[in-house]
Amino acid sequence: MLALDRVTVEFGGLRALDALDLAVGPGEVVGLIGPNGSGKTTVLNAIGGLLPLSGGEIRWREARIDGQPPHRIARLGIARALQHPRPYLRMTVAENLRAAWSGGHGDWREPVEKTLALLELEGQRDVPAADLGLNDRRRLNLGQAIVRPPELLLLDEPAGGLAAEEIAAMTELLASRVLPGRAAIVVDHDVEMLSRLCTRFVALDAGRKIAEGTPAEVLAAPAVRRSLFGDA
Amino acid sequence: MTPLIDVVQVSIDGVMTGSGYALLALGFTLMFGVMRRLNLSFGAALMLGAYAAGWLHLHAGFGALAVAATTVVVATLAGVYIERLCFAPLRGRDAIASLVSSFAVWMQLEELATLMLPRHTNAFPALMDGDPFLFGPFHVRPDQIVMLVIAVALMLLVWLTLHRTRAGLALRVLADQPGAALAVGIDIRSTALMTFAAASALGGIAAFLILAGDRQVTPMFGMWATTKGLIAMMLGGLGSIPGAVVGGLALGLIEAHAQWRLGPQGRDLLAYALLFLCLVWRPGGLFGQTLADTEATARARL
Amino acid sequence: MLEIADIVTGYGKIEALKGVTLSAAEGRITCLLGPNGAGKTTLMYSIAGILRPRRGSIRLKGEEIAGRAPDRIVASGVALVPENRLVFPQMSVRENLQAGAYLRRDTAEIARDVEKLFDRFPRLRERAAQQAGTLSGGEQQMLAVARALMSRPRLLLMDEPSLGLAPLIVEEIFRIVAELHRDGTTIFLVEQNAHMALKVAHHFYLMEQGKVSFGGTPGQLAEDEVIQRAYLGTRR
Amino acid sequence: MSDAAISVLTNIGMISFVGLSAWVLLTVGCVSFGQQAFFGLGAYAAGIGTAVWQWPLLLALPFGALVGALAAALLGAMTLRLHGLYFSIATFAFAECCRIGFELFSYRTTRDGEPIGPDGVEGFGEIRAVFEAGFTATDQLTLVWLLLALAVSLLIAVERTRHGIRARMVGEDPVAAALHGVDVAHVRLAAATVAGALAGLGGGLYAHLTTYIEPRLFDAMLGVHALAYGLIGGLGTAIGPVLGAALDIGLLESTRWFSGSRMIVFGGLVAVLIILRPRGLLDEAAVRRIANLFHARARPRHG
Predict the structure, then answer these.
(1) Would you say the C-alpha torsion A147, A149, A152, A158 has a positive or negative sign?
(2) Shortest Cα distance, chain A CAs vs residue C233, angstroms
(3) Identity of the residue in A80, A88, A105 whose CB atom sits nearest the CB atom of D162
(4) Which CATH number fits the domain D3-298, given the four candidates 2.40.128, 1.10.3470, 1.25.10, 1.10.150?
(5) A113: which residues sit within 8 A by CB, 6+ positions away?
(6) Chain B contacts of D88, Cβ < 8 Å?
(7) Which of A44, A56, A27 is nearest to A204 (CA)?
(8) How high is the pLDDT of residue A84?
(9) Which of A110, B37, D1, D296 has the greatest number of CB atoms lying within 10 Å of its CB?
(10) What is the pLDDT of residue C47?
(11) Which of B290, B301, B302 to mutate to test the interface with A (most CBs of A within 10 A)?
């Protein structure tokens, strides 16, 4: 469904991604792991069209999408939730969801209500997003990505900065309600959460793929342990 | 005179004017380098200084030197006021907020100046009188030479201050990597204030030299100084010291030739058109860098 | 040397540190381990005064420094080697070192310290006149450490010195950390690389979601268990 | 109403158009210092329409708006992708080019034995279509405020549609908006075009109600005022810039309280409001509170 073929991204001399190959099939949930600065977020930025590639290509359902502006890619059904939730702070929770329903084209009421219910944000419907705490912002951020059900979901640290019980709730929500039947790439440092969500892991280091396989395989790989924890 | 002689004479005049533009651009670029923000009130601060000096010239008979000192002191105070009102409280907010705020303060300073001297043209003391020097077929006014010499001396002084003093180090460090500047113990508040004061003092000297050459000051001066400094800086590159000098001289030359061929309106039109094209095609100018980061890269693709 | 009690730091409505308490003993290497996003850098910025804690206390040799401006904190003897190094890219290596001594006024001593650091880091001497932005990642990390040392700190804060560096370079950086300790520098180190950090640390803490979840000596917990708890989770 | 009051109100109405124009761009996150250019272009175009080409007013006013819209679309296509600071300075440079262009623009013909048409720095007088049509001062006031009310209500109506939501998305966070499928460049260009049309329409009114225009009316000061009206009055609703204009022209310019120091007060007001109330008096939160007040009255609570 999605295929990255030798994708290279450079920022001012620094090679953030180096000839990366990555494929995501229908219904497959891929976890991207790697140390800080290894290029995980860059992968999502490149797919989402926020960064230009300096080499390689990205294909979605056999058609090339690299070089397309972000809004086109979004309209293909590829939804991106950013690492740092940035809701529209001057809008309420419900307005934020309506906005993410591509500005309210078509009948937005039903999907907005469904998403509010799914995220248990009904009580905060009319609260301005600026007044939300981190847990609610993370939920709203996720809600904005799924209010118009995407075919491919790109999640960047969906539980970043949350407390243990909030992470558990988020993991449960993703595992039981959001991810089933949908292709996704999830980036997180929380390997435990990723192991529950993902069918396959890809480990990055310095922009290169150093391992790929089931979560257990990848976590046991010496190269991965070395890059993540400095194992000798 | 043959056309070639005209071309050279016009170019000489252009360089002389350009040295004044370079000083204005230098002031702008110092402030931009440290704050990553534009101070549109810069010209108005200089105008207030010139008007205060002009008032003392008119009512207290201040001579050229006292007028120069007054211009510099009042311009510096105005610069400090601008920093405190438009920049210090808005640190951490979008750069545009300070831009708009400084434009609003421009109105204040300009009106304050015209309350002091309500007439449209006001006398300003000449730096010196005397016949033009002749170099073969070319002539140069003595005050123009003084301006050029002072301008070059000030540029050297700025360079030395930046590279040889502690205050200069603070300024360069802050311009280079604001994040780490805090880690080595730079106090942003006082460095920013100091930069604004220094830039305004520098601008005050430039304003005095330019107005002493014109022997008059009008309410147009604030706008004039802001736009000339801005255009010269944009031509040379935001935040670049050599860029400011080259941009100022280039603008002086271009304007002198445009005025000669196209008249005063043609000159101004060309200057603004140049600024516009500069921004649309090469926002970083000749020497500067464009404002760029991941977020900016993303925005450019929308 | 450093005693932190119950500090809370946040951005807007969001709290990144939810009451952190820890300490770093004089002449020792103390490490803070934890995954990305746990709040390690926020803690470093709070100690250095770049972020202002909402409450809690940070004492340096008994002296309260929480809430002071960053330049006052550098003046009281704390130097930060920031995450991502953040050298001054357009300035030369030598100028970077001089910038590190910004708050000092003893010019002759500063020149002597620059020479001493060049002796310690010969690679920096070779590149003394080169623009810092053109150095390799490892060289930039050395420069950032040397720059911090130029303020003659009582306490050196290092924020993920191994970030983005090749394994051999990481080893070199940790060799430097061990040397600095031998010279008597007190070091508080934030790391993701648990293996290297545990090799040099005398005392370490684990941080998760803005809170310290464990504190002890490297012998108290096997490395695998540290990794399990810090990165792989304990919530199975 | 006294003649003076009518004249002040008419003036507020006309100048509100250029404030509204800057406001439209502010809502999509673009700070333009150059909307006075489109006000000027509209004024010249509509003035030429009636005075030189002898068009009826009802054709000339839309023509002014059209010229403003086209010029704004052209400028927008060139500048809207620039980084914020660069965009602001570029619009300023463009507007100054236009002002000097007006100084150089001469288009004179003879009508009833008298020369008529723009004459460079001398300006453009005798734009008398409104007077020849027999409009009284009250009629003029009504015309201006009817058109203004129409424009403001249209903008308020659009706010609730998907176009309005998209504009707000782009204004708040263009990157997030693009990730939610909004074509940011398209939204901004549309906003710039609408803004140009509003300024052009206001300019046409201004030319006809004052009968005389000259290049220096359309200088940077008008642009800054236009921008400031939205920032003072509030970015949360299209009524904001009208409120801003009313405060400035109605309170500062037309009363004697601040005579001689109007700009000092106004400039200070803007600078202080930017610090204390970044989105003006009628910001989104204020608008929401007012709306809730009305809702509460219209629908008494159950139980």
Answers:
(1) positive
(2) 6
(3) A105
(4) 1.10.3470
(5) none
(6) 96, 99
(7) A44
(8) 86
(9) B37
(10) 95
(11) B301
Give the H or E element holding residue A4. strand A2-11
Q: Does A128 touch chain D (CB under 8 A)?
A: yes
**Model confidence at C235: pLDDT above 50:** no
Give the burial class of B293: count Cβ atoms within 10 A of its Cβ; 0-12 exposed, 13-18 middle, 19 or more buried.
exposed
Q: Where are the domains of chain B?
A: 3-300
Distance from CA of A45 to the nearest CA of B (A): 9
**Structural domains of chain C in order of their starting residue, each with its CATH number:** 2-232 (3.40.50.300)
Q: Name the β-bridge partners of C32.
A: C190, C205
Three-state SS across D227-258?
A: HHHHHHHCCCCCHHHHHHHHHHHHHHHCCCCC
The string of pLDDT tens digits covering residues B122-148 is 999 988 777 888 888 888 888 888 888
Whether B289 has a pLDDT exceeding 60, the answer reads no
CA distance C6 to chain A (A): 17
Mutation choice for D interface testing from A86, A88, A126, A146 by most D CBs within 10 A: A88
Judged by CB atoms closer than 8 Å, whether chains meet at C82 and B183 is answered as: yes
**Which chains does A contact via 3+ CB–CB distances below 8 A?**
B, C, D
Residues A157-166 have pLDDT tens digits of 998 878 888 8
Name every residue in A having a CB less than 8 A away from some CB of B: 11, 45, 49-52, 69-71
pLDDT at B291: 47
Q: According to the model, what pLDDT value does residue D301 have?
A: 47
Helix B221-236 × helix B42-60 angle, to 10°: 140
Q: Cβ contact (<8 Å) for B294 and A71?
A: no
Architecture of the domain whose range is B3-300: Orthogonal Bundle (1.10)
pLDDT tens profile A100-144: 987 666 788 899 999 999 999 999 999 999 989 889 999 999 999
pLDDT at B82: 97
Short-list D81, D92, D86, CA closest to D22: D92
User: Strand locations in C26-185, DSSP E?
Assistant: 29-33, 55-60, 63-64, 78-81, 155-159
Confidence of residue D114 (pLDDT cuts 50, 70, 90): confident
Nearest residue of chain B to residue A51 (CA atoms):
B298
Contacts of D279 in chain A (CB under 8 A): 90
pLDDT value, residue C224: 77
Amino acid letter at D159? E
Tens-digit pLDDT profile for residues D247-276: 998 888 777 777 778 888 889 999 999 999
Residue type, B158: V
Closest Cβ–Cβ partner in A38, A161, A191 for C37: A161
Interface contact flag, B183 C89, Cβ < 8 Å: no
Task: Please report residues of A whose CB lies closer than 8 A to that of C194.
Answer: 229-230
Q: Which amino acid is at A137?
A: R
CATH superfamily of A2-87+146-229: P-loop containing nucleotide triphosphate hydrolases (3.40.50.300)
Mean pLDDT, chain D, rounded, equals 92
